[in-house]
Amino acid sequence: MKAVVAHEPNKFAVENISLDPPKAGEVLVKMRATGVCHSDLSAINGTLPLPLPTVIGHEGAGVVDQVGEGVTNVKPGDHVVLSFIPTCGTCFHCLRGETHLCVLGMPTGVMLDGTSRVRLGGKQLNVMLFLGNMAECCVAPSSSVVPIDREIPFKVAALIGCAVTTGVGAAIKTAQVQPGSTVAVFGCGGVGLSVIQGARIAGAACIIGVDLADNKLEMAKEFGATDTVNASSGPVAKIQELTGGIGVDYAFEAIGVSSAIEQTYQAARRGGTVVIVGAGSLVDMVSFSALMLFAEAKTIKGCMYGNVNPRVDFPKWLDLYRRRRLDLDRMVTRTYEIDEAPQAFEDLQQGRNVRGVILFD
What we know:
Elements: E1 2-8, E2 11-16, E3 18-19, E4 26-36, H1 38-45, E5 54-55, E6 60-67, E7 79-82, E8 118-120, E9 123-124, E10 126-127, E11 137-141, E12 145-147, H2 154-160, H3 163-174, E13 182-186, H4 190-202, E14 206-211, H5 214-222, E15 227-230, H6 235-242, E16 248-253, H7 258-267, E17 268-276, H8 290-296, E18 299-302, H9 310-322, E19 332-336, H10 341-349, E20 355-359
Parallel strand pairs: 5-10, 13-14, 13-16, 14-15, 16-17, 17-18, 19-20
Antiparallel strand pairs: 1-2, 1-5, 3-8, 4-6, 4-11, 4-20, 6-7, 7-12, 8-9
């Protein structure tokens, strides 16, 4: 089967790999759609320190083909969305409703039993975040597989696996945006636009999209931003102007860059909430004034996977889609075949898409 394999930093290719059947507690999924996410690119270029060589991909939807021993939550033929964080249900975090922090979720490159299901030329490959679903098929832990209604288009369902869940969850669950509040979102890619949609759904009165690209700012307006600011010149000052010199109640960073994180912090009002959604580099450090951290009394929150419980929240987001409150169709601005993966990543780097999606027959 075909899959996108990162061999070493900045070197990847579409390869023909072999896939073993699922073991106990695992599911084999025939992929129908896989989102091309910036985190995939970060895995390829080494920003995310994942073991290489690895099969890329962590955002997708498909059809269950086989189930391993003991699997009861899905059956062959089910349509599913994949979650890149498996959950045990019994660890410290799961018992406290923090399934997005489950101890099983720390990526190792292999399955939960410590072995791999994929090989290239007889050599074992790693997989990205227990999935490696930028491939025609993947094997995943059963707790990473969430059944969905059959009428949901696969290219829409795929986005629920990462971008939409992270962004909408950041607004509704991590920040708990309140009706009538003010919001700024730094970065208007797929995740940032999902934050904007989440803030709109939550009832924010003022939503300010911030980006360097004018086309992304136009998209931000279409998805719910009431105002936009080009980040090329003084975005914090402009946000202050739009909020009467106060700053916003909630400021979100959806890029993963220290300079943007610092601007996001500055854009929040005294006593406001700053949410870091973007996945940055391990060595990119952020600096704050120790005095101002104390004096401004802001809350800084990291946002891992939108604080969601996939089994509970994936169906909620899809219900919002069915009710036309969450716009997912327009987020997919181009589709590709798997052989076009290099072009998909080039388009991602150039900011040409809200979300590119690889489709499979």
